[in-house]
């Protein structure tokens, strides 16, 4: 049964008192008749006449489970199933809107995008990708439908939103001037998952957001969750907002983002239209060369331990190895020193500092030519050191070009209009649940 809320509002003279719900009046002493459990539904819906089947939901859910290596409990799966259904409803509305405006997405374009996703995201050809999707319980058709939804929505926004976004040259130049004035301050590359919410479903959406954070903290793929769950236009690129300064974020997100370290999550953060989950991908200083972009020439010197080596023996040999490496005078002499202690040497002159594991980056960047890093490794994997043989430092970052800055401002405004557009489509939709 549908829930029926009995509300008696007293008439007051003059203008009605504003409430957090606006014109919707919800008294504090709500009395509910009947029982309505929105979670007690079969995962099937008919959206303006188009059917979403339980199989559609299962196959899309399989993509999320695979991204998390199946480490999701039964209770969490049911919550995810409902979220996937909501996403499929939005996707259906987006496809329907494109069709209503005669905005076609060619099958060839979908196939090309599918092939690109297989190659770039999964490093597989089309046949291997097809087999992989079937193996995990999904299907090529499910992923292609998601691609169709993204391409359809892009076309809708390109016709109905982007032409009405006006960014003047003055605005762009003012933004660039502010960026130059902020030289040396920090710039952030942030990922966002945005979940739209109303006053009626705010508690449920917030609970869903907390569950998503739990899964991400347990090793879930942020990009995969953003593509499946986020209702922002950046969902198609895994939630990546690109490089931004905190001043470009809404006020409620600025403080939360400022407290993050690289690789950390924060949320759910209440916003005007719902909740956001932020992930700090990276950060750097505005218009300042990032040392982590330095191109390094390294030699890796390593020793292995025979099976059964005790910890005491391994520690002793590792100490001798470290002492020998410190005595090596430059990269020209390291090969001979390594041979004297039975170590192996591998060279690479195209290593970017930011591609090294975090704990090693600072120690390597602090080295002078011919110096070695502290030993690292284990009895099982062996012990190794890195010797710095050369370093090409990055040039000073000149910042985004005029066109890039204009595009960034336009994208931000399109994203906000797109959220409002999708809310209107949901409001006008006729949705039947089985």
TrEMBL record:
Keyword Protein transport: no
Swiss-Prot/TrEMBL keywords: Chaperone, Isomerase, Periplasm, Rotamase, Signal
InterPro entries xref list: OMP_Chaperone_SurA, PPIase_dom_sf, PPIase_PpiC, SurA_N, Trigger_fact/SurA_dom_sf
GO molecular function: peptidyl-prolyl cis-trans isomerase activity
Domain of life, source organism: Bacteria
Domain PpiC stretches: 185-282
Name of this protein: Parvulin-like PPIase
Organism per entry: Novosphingobium flavum
């Amino acid at each position: 049964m549908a829930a029926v809320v009995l509300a008696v509002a007293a008439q007051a003279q003059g203008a009605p008192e504003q409430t957090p719900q606006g014109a919707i009046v919800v008294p504090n002493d709500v009395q509910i008749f009947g029982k309505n459990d929105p979670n007690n539904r079969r995962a099937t819906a008919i959206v303006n006449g188009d059917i979403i089947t339980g199989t559609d939901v299962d196959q899309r859910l399989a993509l999320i489970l695979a991204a998390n290596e199946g480490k999701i409990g039964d209770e969490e799966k049911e919550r995810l199933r409902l979220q996937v259904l909501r996403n499929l409803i939005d996707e259906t509305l987006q496809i329907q809107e494109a069709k209503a405006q005669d905005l076609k997405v060619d099958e060839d374009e979908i196939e090309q995008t599918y092939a690109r996703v297989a190659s770039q995201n999964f490093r597989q050809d089309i046949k291997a990708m097809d087999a992989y999707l079937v193996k995990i319980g999904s299907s090529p058709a499910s992923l292609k439908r998601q691609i169709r939804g993204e391409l359809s929505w892009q076309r809708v926004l390109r016709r109905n939103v982007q032409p009405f976004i006006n960014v003047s040259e003055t605005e762009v130049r003012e933004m660039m001037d502010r960026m130059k004035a902020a030289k040396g301050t920090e710039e952030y590359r942030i990922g966002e998952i945005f979940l739209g919410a109303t006053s009626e479903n705010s508690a449920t959406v917030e609970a869903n957001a907390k569950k998503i954070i739990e899964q991400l903290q347990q090793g879930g793929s942020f990009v995969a969750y953003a593509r499946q769950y986020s209702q922002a236009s950046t969902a198609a690129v895994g939630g990546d907002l690109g490089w931004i300064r905190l001043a470009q974020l809404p006020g409620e997100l600025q403080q939360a983002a400022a407290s993050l370290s690289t690789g950390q999550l924060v949320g759910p953060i209440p916003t005007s239209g719902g909740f956001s989950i932020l992930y700090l991908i990276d950060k750097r200083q505005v218009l300042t060369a990032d040392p982590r972009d330095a191109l390094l020439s390294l030699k890796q010197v390593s020793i292995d331990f025979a099976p059964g080596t005790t910890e005491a023996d391994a520690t002793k040999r590792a100490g001798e190895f470290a002492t020998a490496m410190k005595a090596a005078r430059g990269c020209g002499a390291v090969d001979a020193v390594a041979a004297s202690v039975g170590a192996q040497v591998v060279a690479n002159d195209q290593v970017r500092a930011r591609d090294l594991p975090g704990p090693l980056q600072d120690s390597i960047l602090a080295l002078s030519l011919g110096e070695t890093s502290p030993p690292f490794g284990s009895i099982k994997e062996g012990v190794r050191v890195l010797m710095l043989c050369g370093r090409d430092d990055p040039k000073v970052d000149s910042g985004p070009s005029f066109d890039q800055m204009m595009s960034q401002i336009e994208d931000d405004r399109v994203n906000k209009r797109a959220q409002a557009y999708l809310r209107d489509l949901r409001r006008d939709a006729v949705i039947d649940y089985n």
